[in-house]
Amino acid sequence: MNGTSLNGGYTFLKQPRSRFAAALVIFMALCGSWPLQADGAYDSLKGQVKGLYSSFRATFAVTSSSGQIQTGKIMYQYPGKLRVETGTGVIATNGTHLWVHNKSSPLCARQDVSGVGGGLLGILASYEGTIQGNTYIFKKKGAHYEEIVVQVAGGMVRSVRLKHGDETTTYSFSGMTIDTGISGAMFNYKPAGAQIVENPLNN
Fold it and tell me: What pTM was estimated for this model as a whole?
């Protein structure tokens, strides 16, 4: 999230190469809906994680190909509620609205996301996949992320690696606690002292 801003037309929300924006894509992807797909690797991955959970807490680390590491906490509650916290910002959604807040900014973006589908498997639906044990490798020529590698264990996504050109970004999850009875109020973000700016992605 370093170097991002809610100023300048909210460009950090619109640039997929931003680590913060990429994190937004991944974490929103983890709680989306999934279409059907005939690819064998895709179906296998879906079978691994389709049981999922009603809620969980976990810690995560984002590692770039340059070796930079960012850590934080994530909370999820079915259906589609998510809160991601780092030392410098928050991404939260209650399934109807999405808040993105860099704590150093006086502004907080709130986006209407009601009716938005997708999910990790939704993103992978157009990719071709192969399987190596519990590792799923999906590739698509011409896509922004030409390779997406997913590792699973115990019915959970443990890591996701995105490859764009010579750059890679890996999202790793650990310390997962399942069905923890998280309060729904945690997903209604109220930024202290920040001005809400509505639907910046629509501009």
Answer: 0.66
